[in-house]
Specification:
With 142 residues, the protein is mainly alpha-helical. It has 5 helices and no strands. The protein is elongated and about 45 Å long.
């Protein structure tokens, strides 16, 4: 039971971080086709979050962990610093790919190292698959 809660919390935090990063970086993107891709990725993170919130009560009475205010500030500040002199599609794609890779690594660890229920495993697999997909899409913008 505890492994399911931990996995859902980690997944929720990761998808919240992805949404935050996209939200913060979208204002810097001028290419409409790139914006459209990021909007779709944001929506996919949001859908995964909603699915986590639906099944979370089966495992815990509380709410899934989200990113805290400090993490959001650090994400925003990092994006601001790293795009201060370069807001090209290539730079933005590079930053997003770094975060996406961290999400893939965390998701793979959850899949490989935890014994979770099949519905939790399915969500983790969906999360990792979505990130794998968008990693390939982002590569085209480098």
């Amino acid at each position: 039971m505890e492994e399911n809660i931990n996995a859902l919390d980690e997944l929720h935090k990761g998808s919240c971080m992805g949404m935050d990063a996209i939200h913060f970086i979208l204002e810097k993107v001028e290419d409409q086709s790139f914006k459209d891709i990021l909007d779709k990725q944001y929506q996919t993170y949001k859908n995964i979050n909603e699915d986590i919130e639906k099944i979370y009560p089966k495992y815990n009475d509380g709410k899934p962990h989200s990113t805290g205010a400090m993490t959001k500030v650090m994400t925003y500040s990092g994006i601001e610093m790293k795009t201060m002199n370069d807001t090209s599609n290539s730079k933005i794609a590079e930053l997003l790919m770094q975060g996406t890779n961290m999400g893939i690594i965390e998701g793979r660890k959850l899949l490989n190292n935890k014994k979770v229920d099949s519905e939790v495993e399915h969500l983790i697999d969906r999360y990792v698959g979505m990130q794998d997909k968008y990693l390939e899409v982002l590569k085209k913008y480098l």
